[in-house]
Design brief:
The protein has two domains: 54 residues, DNA polymerase, domain 1; 287 residues, TIM Barrel (Alpha-Beta Barrel), CATH 3.20.20.70. 31% of the residues lie in helices and 15% in strands. It contains eleven helices and twelve strands. The protein has a ten-stranded mixed sheet. A two-stranded antiparallel sheet has the order 6-7. Helix 1 packs across helix 2, helix 6 packs parallel to helix 8 and helix 9 packs parallel to helix 10. The chain is elongated and about 70 Å long. Bound molecules: S-adenosyl-L-homocysteine and iron/sulfur cluster. Iron/sulfur cluster binds next to loops.
């Protein structure tokens, strides 16, 4: 088990409360897809023959320039700006706190409507920067190794709250383009992974609409290949993900027998390994994506034997795949231990020799509990009981 990195610099935490008080009851434009934005503008009195142009203008202000007030939308006539301001808000979730790890990872505590909180993690790397976003407050599923799984589902995030996480982090990184300033080649926020709190495929529409906004070429303009959705295995939604989002897919595989997977990823009792693999075989073809990432958390003595590695290779035969080995990240009260480095390397080696890339994921932001599976909003009172978690582990 790897000890958390010894801090070489103090962890920093700062509080930023950005006052973005919405005008009571007015609909928010952030999170509306283009067709929905069009409908909203028409309903507010935009003439039919102008509406296409208005959608384009607003889209660029909000998602290309990152503008938050109608006042600043200088190519709109004043009366139209006033009409917009009387009918709509441009509202984002609020960053309550930001912690910066000694390795540069930033963890944001984000407050959404109703006072609920989710976590968003920014992971800077040499050539890119990945934002790990949440799709739900809590999770209905109860994967026994996952901290989020100990928290009940409070609610799904809206598309505005999902894309809002990308926008507030772009604010924090000062990454919106500025008129007259040449665009930086390298993006600070270049990739999105739906690997934060929640099961994205149990909030399909919310995630789809938000990702369509992220991919739109007139705005944030991230390629679908730079977006990875991770699912625990909601089989009926996998084909839809290919067809309606088309992003890259990662699947929380984590075990090579139904017996073990039932315990680790209980959704397996509903859709077992065979059914999951069947859906995955069709995915790359449907979405035109390259490879599926199989995520595999390394748990000492549970799923990390040589036999497991051999079985895994056999199971995924014929699927264009890469296997991402995730050293287990502990959390207070977690019922497992991380496999030793030697065990993880031996496991990786078997997979690699079978012809698959088998990167070992470096835990990031462990000192601030920002690593995979450690997210959980401390403020949420609704918890699953310890007895419930223990019963699920023992199965
Ligand atoms: N709900 C989705 C996405 C969120 S979890 C899913 O389950 O796929 C993102 C990844 O982190 C998943 O592969 C998940 O299984 C893994 N994970 C969860 N808890 C972990 C932990 N404590 N240590 C390491 N990985 C963990
Ligand atoms: Fe939910 Fe994913 Fe955690 Fe499982 S691993 S409890 S699906 S967030």
């Amino acid at each position: 088990m790897t000890a958390p990195a010894t801090p070489t610099a103090p962890i920093t935490q700062d509080m930023m409360t950005i006052p973005r008080k919405p005008r009571e009851g007015l609909p928010n434009l952030v999170g509306l897809t283009r067709p929905a934005l069009r409908e909203a503008l028409l309903a507010a009195g935009t003439p039919e023959k102008q509406v296409k142009m208005r959608v384009n203008q607003l889209w660029q202000w909000i998602y290309h320039w990152g503008v938050r007030s109608f006042e600043e939308m200088t190519n709109l006539a004043k009366p139209y700006r006033e009409l917009l301001a009387a009918n709509f808000v441009i509202e984002l979730p609020e960053i309550v706190s930001r912690q910066v790890s000694t390795d540069g990872t930033r963890k944001y505590l984000v407050r959404i409507a109703g006072g609920h909180e989710v976590e968003t993690v920014y992971i800077p790397e040499d050539e890119r920067g990945t934002l790990c976003i949440s799709s739900q407050v809590g999770c209905t599923l109860t994967c026994s190794f996952c901290h989020t799984g100990t928290q009940k589902l409070v609610r799904n995030l809206t598309p505005g709250e999902i894309i809002g996480q990308v926008m507030i982090v772009r604010d924090d990184l000062a990454e919106w383009p500025r008129p007259g300033v040449p665009k930086e080649e390298r993006r600070l926020l270049s990739n999105i992974v739906l690997m934060g709190m929640g099961e994205p495929l149990y909030n399909f529409e919310g995630v789809r609409d938000a990702m369509q906004i992220a991919m739109d070429g007139e705005g944030i303009a991230l390629s679908r290949r730079r977006i990875t959705l991770s699912t625990s295995g909601v089989v009926p939604e996998i084909a839809r993900t290919a067809e309606e989002i088309g992003c890259m897919l990662a699947v929380s595989f984590h075990a090579t027998t139904d017996e073990v997977r039932d315990k680790l990823v209980p959704i397996n009792k509903k859709w077992n390994i065979e059914k999951l693999l069947e859906a995955l075989r069709a995915y790359p073809r449907l979405s035109n994506s390259e490879r599926i990432t199989f995520e595999y958390v390394m748990l000492k003595g549970v799923n990390d034997s040589d036999e497991d590695a051999h079985r895994l290779v056999k199971l995924i035969e014929g699927i264009p795949a890469k296997i991402n080995l995730i050293p287990f990240n502990e959390w207070p009260g977690s019922p497992y231990e991380r496999s030793s480095n030697n065990r993880i390397r031996a496991f990786a080696d078997i997979i690699y020799k079978a012809g698959y890339a088998s990167p070992i994921r470096t835990p990031r932001g462990e000192d601030i509990m920002a690593a995979c599976g450690q997210l959980k909003s401390a403020t949420e009172r609704q918890r699953k009981s310890r007895a419930q978690i223990a019963a699920e582990v023992q199965g």
